[in-house]
Amino acid sequence: MTRRPLGTLLVLMVASALGCTSVSPPSPSASATPGGDYPAPTEPATALERGGPRDRPPVPGAPELPGAYRFISTPDFLNQDVADLTAAGREQFIDKSTGEVANSTNAEYDAALDHVITEMASHGTDDVLIAGDLVEGRWGRDDSRTGVFGPVKTQAQRLRAWRRAADVYYPAHRERFTSHGLTIYPAVGDHEVGDDPWQARRDSWIDFKRRHVPQFKRLYADHMMTDADGRARFVDRPRGPARPTAYAVRLDPHVLLVTIDVFERRGGDVHMSVDPAQLTWLRTVLRRARRADVPWVMVQGHTPMTTDVRSRNSTHLVYEDGTESDLWRTMVRGGVDVYLSGEVHDQTVHVFDKILHVSHGSLFYRGEASYVVGQATADQLVLENHQFRGTIGFDDRLWTTSSQGAPGHISYPYPSIVTGTLVARRTSSGGLAVEDAEGVLAPRS
């Protein structure tokens, strides 16, 4: 979940005091960037710029592995509803609070997204892993009373409005990557099921979210887990409630990716856990991988397994029982090498029980986009964290179903810098050993 600590009034007060309406992060030295076109570093000017991922210094890039399989991992991208609501002849609605046509993108967002995704595509990969929170997903409500997705007074109306929103925002997200020649491999995050919390007394929208989690997952799967002909993208899937959302796929002869759904509705609430059928399936997948001697087995799920992670504008969701859970024990016994998680919009690496636990991701709409480039050969795995330093302006906002739309102005004028690297190798006993690591990807002890 995304926590939004700064309201519009506070941000405008800060900006007004500084005589500006935009927030510009400090920039790294020119020598740290491929193009050498960053200005010299400056001191942070506002609360939005202090202590975040953008403030970290660059480190030398990771070594290149000849012939390696390459992938991108970028959890929480976008964690916001960004799409053109005026496209394809859609009816236009006026946001009465602004007098403007309600829209969830503009030319600045289009340019910034193109800049970031184009750089991702430049690394010689076709595959992008996104461990949850593709959208904001606070659908089935209409805080500005525009009627963009229809009425939301009853539960049936809310579900229809949710479906209409899904029909707009999910295809827009997927198209952004396919238009750059990239294929995304997503996982369910809390924003795909309405964003936490799912329990609150006398709150009709939260009650609606909790009741309709299975429907939300099916709508997500209809758009993100199917091909153009409507068939399921992945054959290897569990039985039970996670069948539409969890899957295993061999990305390369050297890499198996297992995507799990860590949001289970049970006992009248939504829990960060996997259902029994999904856990049984995972055990089977891992047994097959060991028999096939797959060099690298990676599992991605939205929530970290520990609270000991850096965090940025997050409510710190964590998997129930963490490294003491049945899920974690299954991954340890099954020979998983890497667990990729999101949620916290920052980067932290641990090594638990010989598994590389990589908690990462970022918030594009706060000017802090990042991604990890992975390289894998039969006996080596290399990770490299790329961090952007964008600018944002809060003098207006994108329209969204909730009142907490993203800042209306955004720019990513420069290439990313490398803020962390990690090199791991396969040991003679079949385990994993970190040979070298720097910056934000250096494992915590």
TrEMBL record:
InterPro entries: Calcineurin-like_PHP, Metallo-depent_PP-like. Its EC number is 3.1.-.-. Residues 21-66 are annotated as: Disordered. GO terms for molecular function: hydrolase activity. Residues 112-346 form the Calcineurin-like phosphoesterase domain. Keywords: Hydrolase, Signal. Residues 21-34 have a biased composition (Low complexity). Pfam families: Metallophos. The keyword Metal-binding does not apply. Residues 1-19 form the signal peptide. This is Metallophosphoesterase family protein. It comes from Nocardioides astragali. The lineage of its organism: Bacteria, Bacillati, Actinomycetota, Actinomycetes, Propionibacteriales.
